[in-house]
Amino acid sequence: MENDPHHNISVNFEKAEFSFLQYIAVIKGLSHNTMMSYRQDIHHYIHFCQHNRGKTNLVTLDLEDVQEFLKFYSSTSHSSRSSARMIATMHTFYRFMMMEKIIIENPWEKIKTPKLPKKIPDFLTIAEVSLLLNGDIQTRKITFDDRNRLMIELLYATGMRVSELLEIKLQDINFVSRTIRVMGKGNKQRIVPILEQTGAEIKNFIATQRVVLDLELCPYLFLNYNGKRMSRQGFWKIVKQRAKLLGLEKNITPHILRHTFATHLLENGADLRIVQELLGHEDIGTTQIYTHINQQKLYATYHQTHPHAHVDVESED
Q: Which residue in 161, 210, 259, 264 is the catalytic one?
């Protein structure tokens, strides 16, 4: 390596990171949130290499630097899932740099991404969804509660991602066909059906509450108090506040409503392929995680209802 003239080339961390982020945004079409996750991981790596290893040239980093970084990262309260994501990020980052001939050796090449057990997603019962949507909040006055409830209703009624919900523009809604055009991962569009009742609620919201918030002719459906597009953080707080005021003890997040949508459809006999299309999953394997939930329910029902389930087994002793 020391005799390799390429070793003497200086590659600035920040320039390499900027080129990579441009690549995944423009060429790969990844979402803003995914880009921010990549950026955060790369920043962790760069900061460690500069301050803990004293290196400022990307070309000089080797396997020992990578191994020391992973030891440090896993020791700083990061979960195994976060570590796996970090490794996946660095593999993508270094593959890009190899492809662009920014570097000629990849110190992450021998680092394998650990296989993690798939976590069965949590979900709400029908009764919990009903309470979240229709519960009467009397402890305090909640301004624009119809907007808040409608956002939650749309997540449960369509299974769309939070980012997709917040990106809905007025022009994306077709009240005649009762559909909404959403922009999914990788800038891939899909058409999501909505119920007649949900369409009527959206119409009413636009005519009554949204018109009050739309101070600057903003194109997005859901706006905050300043007339700007609702942020992920703002919506997260809305869901948390509503769940708390209604006495729901589960850790309810916006994404749990997507899990609930898929689970309830499958429990009621929906075809797995249809659920895959509605969720916007490229790989049906991602959708199949919800079948494990139904299997658990199946086993529980079997043991509760089979005539022999409660028969005492006589011992041979």
A: 161
Catalytic position from the list 169, 185, 229, 240: 185
| Cα(300)–Cα(128) distance, integer angstroms | 20
Q: Phi and psi of 261, rounded to 5°? A: -55, -50
Residue 180 has pLDDT above 80, yes or no: yes
| 3-state class (DSSP) for residue 173 | strand
Instruction: Give the per-residue pLDDT at 4.
Output: 47
What pLDDT digit, counting tens, does each position of 230-245 carry? Answer: 998 899 999 998 998 8
How far, in Å, CA of 253 to CA of 121, rounded?
A: 12
Q: Domain ranges for the chain, please list them.
A: 5-99, 126-303
The catalytic residue among 178, 229, 232, 281 is: 281
Relative to beta strand 179-183, strand 189-193 is antiparallel
> What is the DSSP-derived secondary structure letter of residue 171?
G
CATH 1.10.443.10 fits 126-303, yes or no: yes
Annotated active-site residue 220? The verdict is no
- In the residue annotation, 255 being an active-site residue is answered as yes
Q: What is the pLDDT of residue 268?
A: 86
**Catalytic annotation present for 47:** no
Active site residue 185: yes
Active-site residue identified among 38, 94, 220, 290: 290
Q: Which of 39, 91, 240, 255 is catalytic?
A: 255
SS3 per-residue string spanning 156-207: HHHCCCHHHHHCCEHHHEECCCCEEEEECHHHCEEEEECCHHHHHHHHHHHH
Grouping H, G, I as helix, E, B as strand and the rest as coil, residue 97 is: helix
Q: For residue range 106-141, list pLDDT tens digits in order.
A: 999 999 888 766 666 788 999 999 999 988 776 455
Q: What is the CATH number of domain 5-99?
A: 1.10.150
